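Task: sequence design from structure.
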């Protein structure tokens, strides 16, 4: 079962200091009751994984879904 996710991306060479600030702001925002409720009602568990952990999950999803697309012979139109 795919659980889905939401993510924020930054350009590849964004300095770590900026990434840390962005992650901190996202984590803080996800603590707001109204935002947590929005995600929970939508069926999502609001979390803020560290960038390295999300990158691993993202790469695994690309591989898994890429293989499925190839096996199903799905092509863009």
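Answer:
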């Amino acid at each position: 079962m795919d659980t889905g996710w939401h993510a924020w991306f930054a350009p590849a060479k964004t300095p770590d200091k900026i990434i840390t600030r962005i992650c901190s702001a996202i984590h803080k925002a996800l603590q707001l009751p109204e935002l947590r409720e929005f995600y929970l009602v939508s069926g999502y568990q609001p979390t803020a994984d560290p960038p390295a952990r999300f990158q691993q999950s993202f790469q695994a999803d690309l591989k898994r879904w890429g293989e499925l697309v190839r096996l199903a012979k799905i092509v863009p139109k």
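The chain has a mean pLDDT of 91.
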